[in-house]
């Protein structure tokens, strides 16, 4: 690894961020669908859903944020695929830079762009009535979980971007992830679901992450959910990173 890994990664990050800022429609697209779902569930379905709370926007917000991140990481796979097909990687590898810095540039760009999307959605939520009694430490914990979730899914996106044979194939992996919140505690309590669906909902990562974020925002006890959610995020992150680096070495060797 190059001794200048950090500076090399900074250069790659700057390059990727410039591409994103030149096409702000990407961030707009990422935020439109989650906001549309938030409007639909709050103003159309909200009155018929028994979630045990008077403020359904508060109940909904954690799942909407995860959905936005899942949508955003599909563009990381797409940009990575385009760079790979366009020969950009070969040009960078002919320079004296850390090879992994090219991947880290895309990964950190995903973190930046998703942070912007999450911020926009929170602002829209405030207009719609979202309120939180969380303190600074609670918000920092929420931010940490969202960062871990973003990094974990982004490295999954890296695998897809490096392995796909078409642009559509590069981003298609994100579709099941985007819809995972629908079979979780994000929109309704899992207790209201039929047996097999409830069993799946309660044992997939989105439910524990949503429950943890919701408890932190409402200053409620988080219980074991926080450890389960951290276990999922760290496990996916470590596994996806290892596989992504193996695929990357095979591609550039």
From TrEMBL:
Residues 25-251 form the ABC transmembrane type-2 domain. It comes from Cryptosporangium minutisporangium. It is found in: Cell membrane; Membrane. Belongs to the ABC-2 integral membrane protein family. Signal peptide: none annotated. InterPro entries: ABC2_TM, ABC2_TM_bact-type, ABC_2_transport, Nod_factor_ABC_transporter. Keywords: Antibiotic resistance, Cell membrane, Membrane, Transmembrane, Transmembrane helix, Transport. It comes from the Bacteria. It is a multi-pass membrane protein. The keyword Transmembrane applies. PANTHER family: NODULATION PROTEIN J. The chain crosses the membrane at residues 24-45, 57-81, 102-127, 139-158, 170-188, 226-248. This is Transport permease protein. Pfam families: ABC2_membrane.
């Amino acid at each position: 690894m190059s001794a200048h890994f950090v500076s090399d990664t900074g250069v790659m990050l700057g390059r990727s961020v410039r591409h994103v800022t030149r096409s702000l429609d990407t961030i707009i697209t990422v935020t439109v669908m989650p906001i549309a779902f938030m409007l639909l569930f709050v103003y159309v379905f909200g009155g018929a859903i028994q979630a045990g709370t008077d403020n359904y926007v508060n109940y909904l917000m954690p799942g909407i944020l995860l959905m936005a991140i899942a949508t955003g990481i599909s563009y990381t796979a797409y940009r990575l695929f385009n760079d790979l097909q366009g020969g950009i990687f070969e040009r960078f590898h002919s320079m004296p830079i850390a090879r992994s810095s090219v991947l880290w540039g895309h990964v950190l760009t995903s973190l930046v762009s998703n942070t912007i999307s999450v911020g926009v959605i929170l602002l829209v939520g405030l207009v719609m009535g979202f309120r939180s009694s969380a303190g600074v430490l609670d918000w920092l914990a929420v931010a940490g979980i969202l960062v871990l979730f973003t990094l974990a899914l982004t490295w999954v996106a890296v695998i897809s971007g490096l392995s796909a044979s078409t642009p559509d194939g590069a981003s298609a992996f994100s579709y099941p992830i985007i819809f995972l919140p629908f079979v979780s505690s994000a929109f309704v309590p899992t207790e209201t679901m039929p047996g097999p669906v409830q069993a799946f909902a309660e044992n997939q990562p989105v439910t524990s992450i949503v429950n943890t974020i919701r408890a932190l925002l409402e200053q409620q006890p988080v219980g074991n959910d926080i450890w389960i959610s951290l276990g999922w995020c760290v496990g996916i992150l470590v596994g996806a990173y290892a596989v992504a680096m193996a695929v990357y070495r095979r591609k550039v060797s």
